[in-house]
Amino acid sequence: MAKTNYTFEKRQKELAKQKKQADKLLKKTAAKADQNEQPQPISDDNAVAS
């Protein structure tokens, strides 16, 4: 009977976990970049009176 290759299964699980973390990081950075791209409304407090 063949011996089960647990190291292969463990490696696949680790790779899937790393991929999930990388995707999560990309999603967070994309959301942060989208938030930074939106122009901030100019308030009257910051306006310079001439």
Map the helices and strands.
Blueprint (H helix, E strand, L loop, with lengths): L5 H32 L13
Write up this protein:
The radius of gyration is 24 Å and the shape is rod-shaped. It has one helix spanning 6-37. It has 50 residues and is mostly helical. The model has no long low-confidence stretch (mean pLDDT 84). It is built from one helix and no strands.
Binned, the helix content reads 55-70%
Count of beta strands = 0
Whole-Å distance between the termini? 88 Å
Pick out the low-confidence regions: none
Largest sheet: none
| Structural class assignment | mainly alpha
Q: Multimeric state of these chains? A: single chain
Number of helices: 1
Radius of gyration: 24 Å
Coarse shape: rod-shaped
The average pLDDT score comes to: 84
Strand percentage? under 5%
Order of helices and strands: H
Task: Provide key terms for this protein.
single chain; 1 helix; rod-shaped; 50 residues; 64% helix; mainly alpha
